[in-house]
Amino acid sequence: MKFLIAILIAYFLGSIPSGFILGKIFKGIDIRQYGSKNIGATNVMRVAGVIPGIISFIFDFLKGFFAVQIGRWLLESTMNVFSAPILNFFNKIEDPKTYQIFIIIIGISVIIGHIFPIFLKFRGGKGVATGAGAFINIVPIPIVYALISFVIILIIFRYVSLASMIAVITFFIAELIKNIPKFDELPFLILTAFMMILIIFRHKENIKRLINGQESKINFKKQKEK
Fold first, then answer.
1. Cβ pair 130, 111 in contact under 8 A
2. Rounded-to-10 torsion of CA 145, 176, 11, 72
3. What does the alpha-carbon distance between residue 40 and residue 147 come to, in Å, rounded to a whole number?
4. What does the alpha-carbon distance between residue 187 and residue 106 come to, in Å, rounded to a whole number?
5. What is the pLDDT of residues 152-211, one digit of tens each?
6. pTM of the model
7. In whole angstroms, how far apart are CA 122 and each of 15, 144, 160?
8. Domain locations in the chain?
9. CB of 164 within 8 A of CB of 154?
10. 121 to each of 9, 114, 116, 117, 124, how far by Cα in Å?
């Protein structure tokens, strides 16, 4: 039952639409009606400004991190909600692989909450910042490589979408290399593969715009002047 509680907490925490809230606070607008019509930090930065965009990114990142951390606290506690054997499975965390799988599902839950938030009729963001926050708690070394690649690609090409996709591919490759040759973290590797596919799929419209040369770039100089 602790596991089920952790999943629900993660989903509802992920569903908090920081970009939507900040659009209302700073501009009095529905952020979904402007720019890319996305509630993510990039669109918030373009439409509402740098400060709201940074706040949105930090909030989304932290909700991913703390959703997983709360899940850890619950799973590692000594509390047993149910004593019935058939329900006790959800309290079982002795096996390392079982623990890894539980943590993975909690991480996925917070990301799904961000992408499909119940508070906005299941129309949310792309899950990059929230995913980064969750993964830095689950697999910190691969996510560091992913963040480095994100920054490098963003500086060179100035496309947030391209940087996000390259970062998630780097994330998967780093976790794959980390697993070779024993594959001790196979559940985590499966998670990174799933997230790579999901985030790239969520960027399908961006891919079309990149191919057609219509994708918007981040203008660092313009942001500084503002």
1. yes
2. -90
3. 17
4. 13
5. 999 999 999 999 999 999 999 999 999 998 888 888 898 899 889 988 998 999 999 999
6. 0.80
7. 9, 30, 23
8. 1-138, 140-226
9. no
10. 18, 12, 8, 7, 8
